[in-house]
């Protein structure tokens, strides 16, 4: 399926298209890792790929597993919103709600200068490909470590996905393929949620948190 390409880091991220491809693949790797490590789908729903030297499992459309096929379709719809620069927030929720994985996207101006606030208060720092690669691999490794410390999910687990948009640029009737207008804005957690910030990956054109 369309998620299956390996994450190849170009020597230089000099076009928005290269950056978009990297962000899409990174999202596919992150979502696949989460569902794989949480045991959502059977082994047959994943292919093995490499992200530099890190071995990762990537979701594929498995005809014996309608859930994985559905999730791949959702991911492709999510790419549509990402490509149009409408996508702001992307949530994957398990149960009502045992766990929620929240991805946040920013689009930057077409230049290698990126202004984002981080702990070092770097302003207008030039993002190199090495920075992006290092941050990407760190993000995936952190997901692996995080998953090892979570308690098992219940057997009747249910996965949903929500997309939130940048309202000022998104047409009011826009819904990417596979999505419909959502009713509720909020999140209802079982008990008191614990929040963890896993990391951020900057490129000259995008920012994935």
TrEMBL record:
Protein's UniProt keywords contain Phosphoprotein: yes
Domain HORMA: 17-209
Gene Ontology annotations for the cellular component aspect, listed alphabetically: chromosome; nucleus
Annotated keywords: Chromosome, Differentiation, Meiosis, Nucleus, Oogenesis, Phosphoprotein, Spermatogenesis
Subcellular location: Chromosome; Nucleus
Quaternary structure, from the entry: Interacts with HORMAD2. Interacts with IHO1.
Protein name: HORMA domain-containing protein 1
UniProt organism field: Phaetusa simplex
């Amino acid at each position: 399926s369309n998620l299956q390409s390996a994450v190849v880091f170009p020597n230089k991220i000099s076009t928005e298209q290269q950056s978009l491809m990297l962000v899409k693949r990174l999202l596919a790797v992150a979502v696949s890792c989460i569902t794989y490590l949480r045991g959502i789908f059977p082994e047959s729903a994943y292919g093995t790929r490499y992200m530099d030297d890190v071995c990762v499992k990537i979701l594929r459309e498995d005809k014996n597993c309608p859930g994985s096929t559905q999730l791949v379709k959702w991911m492709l719809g999510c790419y549509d919103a990402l490509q149009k620069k409408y996508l702001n927030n992307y949530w994957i929720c398990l149960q009502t709600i045992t766990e929620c994985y929240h991805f946040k996207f920013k689009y930057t101006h077409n230049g290698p200068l990126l202004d984002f606030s981080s702990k070092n208060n770097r302003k207008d720092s030039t993002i190199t490909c090495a920075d992006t690669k290092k941050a990407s691999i760190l993000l995936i490794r952190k997901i692996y470590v995080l998953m090892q410390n979570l308690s098992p999910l219940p057997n009747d687990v249910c996965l949903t996905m929500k997309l939130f948009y940048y309202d000022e640029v998104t047409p009011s009737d826009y819904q990417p393929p596979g999505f419909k207008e959502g009713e509720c804005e909020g999140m209802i957690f079982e008990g008191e949620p614990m929040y963890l910030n896993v990391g951020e990956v900057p490129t000259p054109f995008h920012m994935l948190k």
